[in-house]
Amino acid sequence: VKKIGKVVAGTIEGDLHDIGKNLVCMMLKGAGFEIIDLGVDVKPEEFVEAAKGAKPDILVISALLTTTMLNMPRVIEELKKAGIRDDVKVLIGGAPVSQTYAEEIGADGYSPDSSAAVELARRLVS
Ligand code: B12
User: Fold this and answer.
1) Which of 13, 53, 101, 125 would you call most buried, defined as having the most Cβ atoms within 10 angstroms of its Cβ?
2) Residues 6+ apart with CB under 8 A from 85
């Protein structure tokens, strides 16, 4: 499969749920994205370090807890502090997350499931 983009993925700090994130990664890989999976309980600073190092097109951030989704905007703040917010698209998802929340925190996109995530990721890199 021809590579169409690079993704750094992870479940946000404090959260150990990874089934949904893994599904999204598998579907993106199948669609031609290179995946760097940081795993679970990923600190905002770790997302930013990976974004600096690997220079992905998209950060995929998952949260399954209403408490840990509140750590998602910290990734966007840290990207801004590092001066690289405009270099990478931020895609968020997970059961408690919504389109409204994505807009509120300034993410570039939200999808309710892994198939829709692939379509959105394709659009974001095209
Ligand atoms: C499996 C599970 C666990 C497993 C996780 C195993 C693992 N390796 O992931 C274990 C047992 C470890 C666990 C632990 C806990 N859990 Co739990 N867990 C679940 C459960 C049953 C299923 C979640 C799941 O995997 N769903 C299936 C996947 C495929 O769906 P998904 O994650 O939503 O992903 C899809 C979409 O959301 C989307 N998506 C996901 N991520 C992303 C990212 C992007 C960028 C995009 C675009 C899309 C996307 O695509 C996916 C595919 O379609 C849910 C209840 C439920 N029925 O949902 C509770 C649930 C999430 N857990 C809950 C809780 C409370 C906990 C614990 C706090 C329990 C405790 N007291 O210890 C701990 C937290 C541990 C921690 N720090 O994270 C609550 C959360 C409540 C809340 N309001 O926040 C839930 C809702 C159960 C409940 N009804 O109370 N849990």
Assistant:
1) 13
2) 76, 79
- Taking the centre of ligand 1 as the mean of its atom positions, its distance from the CA of residue 4, in whole angstroms, is 29
Total structural domains within the chain: 1
pLDDT at 102 over 90: yes
Sequence-distant contacts of 104-108: CB under 8 A, at least 24 apart? 105/72, 105/73, 105/76, 106/73, 106/76, 107/61, 107/72, 107/76
Q: What is the pLDDT of residue 39?
A: 98
Residue 55 structural domain: 5-125
d(CA 18, CA 22): 6
CATH label of the domain that carries residue 84? 3.40.50.280
